Amino acid sequence: MAKNVIINGVTYQNVPEVQMPLASGSGSARFVDTDDATLSGGGQMLDGVTAYADGVKYSGTIQSKAAQTYTPGTSDQTIAAGQYLAGAQTVKGSTNLVASNIRSGVQIFNVTGSLSTPTITQDQSTKVLTIQ
pTM for this structure? Predict the structure, then answer.
């Protein structure tokens, strides 16, 4: 959004920015209208980044999470909200997670087992074990 600017009594209309030489003689200062910026705080930018909106300087607060590999275990592992995933987040799999390796009726990570459990009986008179 451009503004009307008065310099030495002269009005310039719809000026989007003003660039002026520095008193030191090297470089310049640039003034840009940020009234129409939609940034509302540091929670919209990564940590270490700064920006201006409506004349206010904001510093980013969103943390970055580097690439990580997760190995399934007995408890949940949560990737917390409010972070930027700067690298691939990988959940490990296993080629051994198949129905034939899981006892029948047991479910692990949505795989229902089909492995039958052997029945062992012992003849009380002969003490012979039978496995079926």
Answer: 0.58
